[in-house]
Specification:
By secondary structure, the chain is an alpha+beta fold. 22% of the residues lie in helices and 25% in strands. It has one domain: GTP Cyclohydrolase I, domain 2 (2-Layer Sandwich). InterPro entries: GTP-CH-I_C/QueF (IPR043133), NADPH_dep_7-cyano-7-deazaG_red (IPR050084), QueF (IPR029500), QueF_type1 (IPR016856).
Length: 162
């Protein structure tokens, strides 16, 4: 990233970061994609996601996987970390959390393609793993999203971390 591309970033390198544990999508920041001519994935693995069950108030824990293909804007990783932390006291069902994260990132970046897969640890003997995706309408990425959704769970992964 060129120094000129960081002038609008307020969190990266800031040693006086405050942590907000109430849902806050406004904390997200972007920088310009330096390789707009390429299609490529950026993947975030976030193993310490927490939110609250809206019915019981009990904490839910998950690993969140975010994969996206940037167009012009990319999400800055420290702001993403703080945004994910803002779910700590958020009342939301698993499916809502995954879709909210995806929609906030679409609004922020307008990516070519994005998918969010939330793998929650079991409670009551059941794990819930919502998957959602989006491809920019009218492009090949819309077709890609449909294809990936149709084939999403044809080859389930081996779960060995729960």
């Amino acid at each position: 990233m060129r120094k000129s591309d960081t002038k609008d970033l307020t969190l990266l390198g800031n040693q006086e970061t405050t942590y907000n544990y109430e849902y806050d999508p406004d904390i997200l920041e972007t920088f310009n994609n330096q390789h707009t001519e390429n299609d490529y994935f950026v993947k975030f693995n976030i193993p310490e996601f927490t939110s609250l069950c809206p019915m019981t108030g009990q904490p839910d824990f998950a690993t969140i996987y975010i994969s996206y293909m940037p167009e012009i804007k990319m999400v800055e990783s420290k702001s993403l970390k703080l945004y994910i932390g803002s779910f700590r006291n958020h009342d939301g069902f698993h499916e809502d959390c995954a879709n909210t994260i995806m929609k906030d990132l679409i609004k922020l970046m307008d990516p070519k393609y994005i998918e969010v897969w939330a793998k929650f640890t079991p409670r009551g003997g059941i794990s819930i793993d919502p998957y959602c995706n989006y491809g920019k309408p009218g492009t090949i990425y819309e077709d890609m999203a449909r294809e990936r959704m149709f084939k999403h769970d044809m080859y389930p992964e081996t779960v060995d971390n729960r």
